[in-house]
Amino acid sequence: MRHELVDASRVWFGLLLSWRSIWRNKVKANAASGMAVHDECKLRFLELKAKRTHRFIIFKIEEKQKQVVVEKVGEPTQSYDDFTASLPADECRYAVYDFDFVTAENCQKSRIFFIAWSPDTSRIRNKMIYASSKDRFKRELDGIQVELQATDPTEMGLDVIKSRAN
């Protein structure tokens, strides 16, 4: 009888530890990818998409607030060079760029690019936070047509943008 009680208590203790471990891992996973999206991000994106009042938007994650916020908004007259110059050389960012182009058939078109900027020189923790939050953030921005992942400026050069736009 005593052995049965000891075995039963070991089983219950083992189950308790298993559930505790599962719960902790779930909480950690949610914390890693659970960045909130500030309402201004959605509003500025809608303005870019529908009203075309912006050429680009750069978003950053505020770690203390645990949310994605708008860092910079580009005027419609700004160029692609102005956009790339606005991205920090050693920190990750999300960006949206409204690219206007003319097709081979001489038609004026536009594509909205989502760019995940993750330079090689940025901190590993920064890269991990941005990578784990990217999909959730992208879902909030309905209307993205092309996605790019860039770790250095050559991976998002104007020639790359033009080739991906078609």
UniProtKB/TrEMBL annotation:
Domain ADF-H: 32-166
SUPFAM superfamilies: Actin depolymerizing proteins (SSF55753)
Keywords attached to this entry: Actin-binding
Annotated Gene Ontology cellular component terms: actin cytoskeleton
InterPro entries linked to this entry: ADF-H, ADF-H/Gelsolin-like_dom_sf, ADF/Cofilin
Domain of life: Eukaryota
A GO molecular-function descriptor: actin binding
Pfam families xref list: Cofilin_ADF
Keyword match Nuclease: no
GO process terms (BP): actin filament depolymerization
Entry-linked PANTHER family: COFILIN-RELATED (PTHR11913)
Family: Belongs to the actin-binding proteins ADF family.
Name of the featured protein: Actin-depolymerizing factor 1
Protein's organism: Sesamum radiatum
